[in-house]
Every structure is written in C-alpha cells, then in structure tokens.
Amino acid sequence: MAMDVGGLFIHPKKNVTLALAIKNLGFTLADYSEGSSSSLPFDVQVGSTFKPEHMPFRFSITAFNLTDFDVPEIEGEEASTTDKIVRHLNIGTELLLGKNVNVLLAYNFQKRQELRVAETGGGAGFSVGLSMTIKNIELVVSRSSYGPQKAAYGFTLAANTKTLLRKRTTI
Questions:
Q1: Longest CA–CA separation in the chain, Å
Q2: What is the pLDDT of residues 111-160, one digit of tens each?
Q3: pTM to 2 decimal places
Q4: Partners of 144 in the beta sheet?
Q5: What whole-number distance in Å separates Cα of residue 93 and Cα of residue 83?
Q6: Which of 29, 44, 92, 125 has a CA-to-CA distance to 154 between 20 and 30 Å?
C-alpha cells in the first residue's frame, strides 16, 4: 500500500513556483519470499522554478532523495560533503525562443558521478530537449546521455482536454 503526496505553490505576482513531493509513502503488505524484507523506495523531493523578469530563460532546481544522504563510493573514493550534497540535485534551464518554442537543458550530478567513464567525458548526466506548443497540443522531444554512445530518448505529447473537448450547450 503506497501513495504519493505533493503540493505546489505558484506565486501570484512573480514567475516563481515551489513544489514538494513525497513519494512511496506506505508499507508492504506481504513479502514475496519468507527470507526477504521488502521496503518501498521512499523519496522526498523539493523543487523550484523561476524566470527572471527580463531574460528569455527559466531556471529550475530539484533536490531529491532527501531522506538518504549516503552516496555510494566511486572507484573506492569516498565522496566529500559537497559531493554528497550536489548528488541530490538536478538543475535545468529553458531557453524561451518564443511563446511556443523552448530549448531544454538539464544536468543530473548523481548520474554524472555514477555513469562517468574515466577515459572520456561521455556526456553522462546531461539532457537536452525541445518543447513546442501548437494550438493546445504540446510536443516535447528529449535526449538524456548515459555515457559514450549511450542515450535515452523521450517523446511526450500532451493536450489540454478541457479546451479540446468543448462542452456542447443545448437550448
């Protein structure tokens, strides 16, 4: 039994949004085997997005996995305090090219540390994308790097059903 709980605050005058999400709040009813003790991957996330008034950019920062500050050692090297903090952060920006077109850029510190290749940069932890809105339909195409020649591509199609499916009025 699990649930997610979240909240969002949108500033009424400034272009600032704050959010809190509590994920996998709950417990297991039964384990799959007698010797195991299953637990849910509980996570607390806090994020903020803001757009400076006279800039064509929107900036975002998200802190995740706030209940566990232990991070794995990489190549036998223990993480510094600063490294432990930044591995819980995702940062991103949107370049607002127009009312309906945005270029998306993001960086995940944890993915970069866990997936980096010593000999090459590989781009692990970086994501890029393009967002376009046509009428009431939003299309987002993205690419997340996981190392040299390894990437995941995302495709999102979103629509505002409230405006697409208008109610018929009867007389």
A1: 75
A2: 877 776 666 666 788 999 999 999 889 999 999 987 777 889 999 999 98
A3: 0.78
A4: 127, 152
A5: 21
A6: 44
